[in-house]
Amino acid sequence: MTHEISASRRRFLQVGATAAAVALINPLAAKPGGGSGGTPVRATLKLGESVTGRTVPSGLVGLSFETLQMHDTRYFSASNEALIGLLRRLNPAGVLRIGGNSSDFSAWSGYTGALPPMPQLPNAVYKRPYMVTPEQLANLAGFLDATGWRLVFGVNLRRGSPEMAAELAEAVQRAVGDRLQAIQIGNEPSLYKHADGSAFSYDEYMALWRKTAGAIRQRAHVPIAGPDTSNEIDWVLKFARDTDDIVALTHHYYRGGAPAPTTTVAQMLAGDPGFISQAEQVAKVAAAKKLPFLLTEANSYWGGGKLGVSNTFASALWSGDFTLACAQAGVDGINIHSGTLSVLEASLNKNVATAPNGANLKQRLDAISGRYTPIAGDVGQGWYPRPLYYGLLLAQQFGGARFVSAELAANGANLTAYAADRNGQRLIALFNKDLQRDVTVRMELGAPASRLRLWRLEADSIDAIHDVRLAGNEVAGNGDWSPRHEETVAVDGSHAQVRLPRGSAALAFVEA
């Protein structure tokens, strides 16, 4: 998993004595400060009349899983109707990434050549190498067809062989056909170590990558993406410079490490403007090469996430805000890392045997699920969407819309706002990440309107882990959902006002 990325520069301006945050097109987040909890902060949001920003890709929100997750052949299968429903609810045009740390301990079952030895964990729940089989790939193809999603698939670079990687890439393409968006070679190569503990250099990685990519291309005509790095943005920029035959630039993101004492709800909700600046830098390079820039693995905290942070309602506010901030910066897709606890822990060189213990269904599903996974559960027990899922679902509503220029004066509140236009209808997302103060946002909509339809994203508390609601309704364990409570907000000409309780978010649809 990746390590925290240090900020390189601030993306927001502090204006005047009130420290109001103001931005054009890009989101603004003012840091929370003092003030009375009973008096709402008065903020203003002014939208431009014209649509000048980038279009949000329809495939913005996707999910990422470990290769080892395929060990249960029912998991990614057309028969897993409930999980299919949850993915289709999240995004009917998403991308599934299969890879992670376990991809560098995986092997193609049809390969008959020699492989380097793979170290075993003591009393391992899963034995290495993690075999990828024809049955797994056939079931995966049916799963992709049922969801309508595309696939990014990672092959072993660190402990495999170029010939085995080539055979696996060919088998994946043969199984899933044109649903294959890209093959990736290796996972987080910037963290590879030699036997003596020294780190791989970029040049050493590229030599190994070129050898494997060459073997793949000799065997099959498949799209290849990379470098799938952790925190080394410079490796992404060098990779873009040094390769001319790839289909996407890929990278990972985590806010920080789960074991760190600084890993708190407050840190998660503070945002990460330094990374957003770096994402903008890579996105510009990718755009110049006419390539998408994808975060093929992302979540709150590496190390599997932190209970009390990564699984709380705060993660819903983080995921919605982070996803839209990345989209504005030029990121074309974000795959949130997911899966069962035993698989995710095995990918971190830990052995955890789980059992569905708990007083109710959600608690039993929590017991077998990764700490930061947006969907809890497994094939045998069922599923439910966690808080993180709801923030992603809100952000994905912007898919296909084009960002609108905006100026936000947050007046010291930890508030962010995003606006976009789709077929003449404006959408506005508001995230009040301030845990001390409510905010009243007065909006200039940029054009006359009749009303706003408002969906609120809310829970009973910022640390709630269950009973999250979007538009007054929970998403069912099979993905069924519809708005139960849409508020109507009056518009005076082209002005409207929305009160946003502390620790909540809202999505407004502007009606002409």
How much β-strand is present in the residues? 25-35%
Count of DSSP E strands? 25
CATH top level of the largest domain?
A: Alpha Beta
Low-pLDDT parts are 1-36
Classified in CATH, the superfamily of the largest domain is Glycosidases
CATH architecture of the largest domain: Alpha-Beta Barrel
Q: Which value, in Å, is the CA radius of gyration?
A: 22 Å
Distance between the termini: 46 Å
Q: How many alpha or pi helices? A: 11
Structural class: alpha/beta
CATH topology of the largest domain: TIM Barrel
Q: How would you explain this protein's 3D organization?
A:
InterPro entries: GH (IPR017853), GH79_Enzymes (IPR052974), Glyco_hydro_b (IPR013780), TAT_signal (IPR006311). By secondary structure, the chain is α/β, with parallel strands linked by helices. Helix content is 25%, strand content 27%. It has helices spanning 81-90, 134-147, 162-176, 202-219, 233-242, 265-269, 273-288, 313-329, 341-347, 361-367, 387-396, and strands spanning 13-15, 20-22, 41-47, 61-66, 95-99, 106-108, 130-132, 150-155, 180-185, 224-229, 249-257, 293-302, 333-338, 375-378, 382-385, 402-403, 406-409, 415-422, 425-432, 439-444, 451-458, 469-470, 487-492, 495-500, 504-511. A hairpin with a 2-residue loop joins strand 18 and strand 19. Helix 3 (162-176) packs across helix 4. It is globular and about 70 Å long.
